[in-house]
Specification:
The protein is α/β, with parallel strands linked by helices and 293 residues long. It is built from seven helices and 17 strands. The chain is globular.
Length: 293
């Protein structure tokens, strides 16, 4: 398992009976987690959360707030700052387990020997509030950030700004990801690296329907055609997809390896749990990088 174990402003304190207790900066949130199928005793840390998300038997749910600001920030490392706020369907605007992938591709970007006037070009699809975008830009890449939600792209811009990312380092796009990729292919555009974190189901800005089991392989095939002659990496993540890690590496091996060779690996990603010293699984990732990277 690839662990996101370098956080200081975030931790999973404990998890039991379908829920996890997390510290986001100085605030404690209690949220449901479908992976937590065990029932273990809950200590005193659970007694005073700042907010609890209650799942509804009819689907969805709602927050119960005790003492939580409308929004606040946390930091990752020395460079990355993220604005958080609780919103529908239990989210806060950040998936902290993805830091395991940020560390991996940031190292690749930093060590890549390219002319200073031609930074590594990264395409980030289903880019949400920009965790990966900000990490890649902070490492020195130029990022094209694509998400179908105008609100999420606006939030990502805020994260980039408060992290000190130069405005020229990111190109912001509100669009259906597959349609954007198709247009970039027609334009003859190329990228040195591609990141995607597709949802299980979604709708584009014009009502386009995305079902991951039908759409992921065609999209990976299209994206492979966007790679430059000497690409650096290709990353697929999935929390809600339900695919085994090896499914993601299989897709990459089918579409990227025949043309570029390189190394493919896949694994679960997770977060350490302070109370038990164990790891909470949080989805999976498939990674490809050039052989000499």
């Amino acid at each position: 398992m690839w662990l996101a174990d370098q956080w200081k402003d975030y931790e999973v304190i404990d998890c039991s009976n379908g829920e996890k207790l997390e510290r986001w900066g100085t605030y404690l949130l209690q949220r449901p987690d479908p992976q937590v199928i065990w029932q273990t005793p809950r200590g005193a840390a659970w007694n005073h959360p700042n907010a609890i998300y209650h799942r509804s038997s009819r689907g969805g749910g709602e927050w119960e707030f005790f003492s939580l600001p409308e929004q606040w920030t946390i930091r990752y490392g020395d460079a990355l700052t993220f604005r958080l706020k609780p919103f529908s369907f239990k989210h806060t605007g950040l998936f902290p387990e993805q830091a395991a992938n940020w560390e991996w591709f940031s190292r690749l970007i930093r060590q890549e020997n390219r002319p200073k006037d031609r930074p590594v070009r990264v395409l980030n699809l289903f880019a949400y509030t920009g965790g990966a975008t900000v990490a890649a830009a902070a490492a020195g890449a130029h990022v094209t950030h694509v998400d179908a939600s105008k609100g999420m792209v606006g939030w990502a811009k805020e994260n980039a700004q408060i992290s000190g990312v130069p405005e020229t380092s990111v190109r912001w796009i509100v669009d259906d990801c597959q349609k954007f990729v198709e247009r970039e292919l027609r334009r003859g555009k190329t990228y040195d690296a591609i990141i995607m974190d597709p949802p299980s189901y979604g709708r584009g800005p014009r009502g386009e329907i995305w079902k991951v089991e039908d759409a992921i392989h065609p999209l990976v095939r299209l994206c492979a055609g966007l790679l430059s002659d000497h690409p650096l990496f290709f990353l697929i993540s999935g929390y809600t997809t339900g695919f085994a890690p090896s499914v993601l590496s299989y897709l990459i091996s089918l579409e990227v390896v025949p043309r570029f060779g390189g190394r493919v690996e896949s694994d679960e990603i997770g977060l350490p749990v302070t109370q038990t010293g164990l790891a909470l699984p949080c989805g999976s990732s498939g990674r490809w990088c050039r052989e000499d990277a």
